[in-house]
Amino acid sequence: MPQHQVQWERMFPDELEAAFQTCPIVYLPYGLCEPHGWHNAVGMDAIRAHQCSCQAAQVHRGIVAPPFYWHCHDIGGYSAWAHKRAGQVRPWLTPIPPWMFLKNICYHIRAVDTLGFHGAILFSGHSGPHRLDVPIVLDIMQAHVGVRLYSTMSVSTDISRFNDK
Known about the structure:
Layout: H1 13-22, E1 25-30, H2 44-60, E2 63-64, H3 77-85, H4 98-115, E3 119-124, H5 130-142, E4 148-152, H6 160-163
Parallel strand pairs: 1-2, 1-3, 3-4
Helix pairs in contact: 4-5
């Protein structure tokens, strides 16, 4: 199967319109810059989310939004984990507070809803406690937007959320 462009930031307006007409689904990849050992780039979380989203869009169509490299990490349980694991003088993290991360998700949802997307798939390459908060935010947002929302924000995603609606 020939590859077609799915990355929003690399497409021209006419390509975006054609892709939208074919499949009005958007993938929203999230991640964090953080050390994952000497053998991985610090942006691995977002790179993984973006690449998985691109692969899904290649097969199933849709448009992949630019990855968001700022994520929850330096407060609460995340902070304790990072101090023990990363523990470097300069850990090269790109953290934002959880409330800011969740507000950004709300803004991203509002933006893709305004554009007319029928579905939005949120995918994070960064795991942690936010996986419990994101479904609550999506349930609240779903009541106020037309775009259908689904999240794969961690390894313990509750697939029944998607099947019940």
